[in-house]
Amino acid sequence: MLTASGLSKSYGGRALFEEASLQVNRGDRIGLIGANGAGKSTLFSLILKEAAPDSGTVALERNISVGFLPQESAPSGDETVLELATNISPEMEEIRRQIRETSEEDPIHHDAIGRFAELQGHTLEVKAKRILSGLAFRESDIGKPARTLSGGWIMRAHLARLLVMEPDILMLDEPTNHLDLESLGWFQNYLSKYSGAILAISHDREFLNAICVGILEIRNRKLNRYRGNYDDYLSQKAAREEQHLAAYKNQQREIAELQRFIDRFRAKASKAAQAQDRVKQLARMEKIEPPERDEATVSFSFPQPKRGGERVITLEGVKQSYGSHLVYSKLDLEVERAQRTVLVGPNGAGKSTMLKILAGMLPIEAGTITPGHNLSIGYFAQHRTEMLDIKRTVLAEAMETKTPVPEQTVRTILGSFLFRGDDVFKPVGVLSGGEKSRLALVKLLLNPPNLLLLDEPTTHLDMPSIDALIGSLRQYEGTLLFVSHDVHFIRALATSVLHISAGKLTPYAGDYQYYLDKSGSQSERAALVAPGDYRPEAEKGIVTAPRVKMGMREIKEQRRAEAEARKAANKLIREAQARLKVAEEEIATLESRQLEIISELENNESMKGGRAFELNRELATIQENLSRVMEVWESLSASLPADDETKLSGTT
Questions:
Q1: Which residue in 205, 232, 351, 465 has the fewest CB atoms around it within 10 Å?
Q2: HEC-encoded secondary structure of 221-287
Q3: Residue 304 domain-assigned (yes or no)
Q4: What is the pTM of this model?
Q5: C-alpha angle with apex 249: 245 to 252, nearest 5 degrees?
Q6: pLDDT one-digit tens code per residue, 261-287
Q7: Is 327 in the same domain as 256?
């Protein structure tokens, strides 16, 4: 359906693509990934004909329709949400406008109604309502003017329009940024059955794993295609890089050997012809490029918070509601120092409300909040970006901290969150929402409190930024409570889980895998919004919660027993890994010698005398040994769990 060939494109003297190629077929669901600035959005612009390549072509099959969802700023006017969702073509949009702006007596109105019926507008409305419902629109919302909604909900309405339209190629730029977890689950399921092709830019690993049958990575000005989802991409990429490195090393050894012969015998009359042959052989050789270097990871340290008391904050008898909706009643909670707790539970259960209560951002209706000794609180939510001074530059705003921080440290942390070079001199006012979010996170990290409350901190962050945030928070010595839909982020940081549902708090004294095991959840992401066990009184709106103590002392024995079990299991895994490593090293040695022998046999001179016989006999022995060691390797590989590295890393 879509073919790009020989694609080259530069901006400001910097090449984004050089002789890049791409093909998208029916049924493809491709995730487009790459470092910030690699050219993902530019590739979309080239496909949409919004920009022209310097060379090469982008071709669509005849009569192929393309739908595009931008990351931000999709337009809206006077149309209702339902009208926006059914405006699947310019003609339908014009018909809608005529119906809306003319009276029933007007012939134009009458003609528009007739044409609307011919285009099966009412069938479209039924379909749109179903999709809007899946994207969490309430029935009362779909008749509202779209312009009265927030930017995130307008983007959802445009996403609904594309799904109603069902283009042959659906192009999505960070589609999960504006979705809550329940609508995201619906959306992933919908895309898994989508009949057309999908090309999606996303930094959400779980989303890419759920929908993709292929990954397209932009790297070193090329488009590299991988089969499967994001996890498959990681394993295939590692294997490709290993094979490339081995081939490169083998060729470099061969080049060095040829060059030594040339240097040694070029001036010797009896060997001059042979030396010249090797010069020609070297010239004809197709050189293997050296392995590509990954971008250097940023390593830095930032000021640690002042030490607080053992009891960080305590809630007793807290009541909180929104109008007639009771969220908490008689809620007791105690948070202890050094916890790293993720809050999970269904949408609307009160996770964000809990963070706001702890942060003092939401006055409680009843009960008491007792701060611990020396407590300082940092709270990150979307409104946090409004506290930035839009007149300052990025660098000046980042350096505006209570405790002075060296400029080089500030620049380093800004760089890890993709504010590089002259970006630090941009006015805050011109930053996108995502850039403002990153800057707000930087300010928190430069002057961290001893209780950090984060509500969806990874929204608008790409994978390198998320990894930089994880690295920062792993260094953090204070107490962390957070809400997130990013399973990778949760697994990297959470040491305990607090499930919130209908005012009931259920603590899990282990990491996210422990929570999954204990709760019996069907999937990693579904577990984030699992309802848990509802009690009859909760259904009647009389919500109470037992006292929950988020401390280490009460769960010490439980954790020790679990740690011993993990230790025993990991010992067996490590032993198998050690044997696997030995087998891999032996395979590498045998394969290297195999290549050397084959290369020597291809040299006509080596075929004289008994040398060829010796080489062939050695080659047969090597092949027998390779078969034997490969059987051992396959047996050991099958005995290891697929995610053994993840499990091991969680115990260190």
A1: 232
A2: CEEEEEECCHHHHHHHHHHHHHHHHHHHHHHHHHHHHHHHHHHHHCCCHHHHHHHHHHHHHHHHCCC
A3: no
A4: 0.69
A5: 140
A6: 888 888 887 788 888 888 999 999 988
A7: no
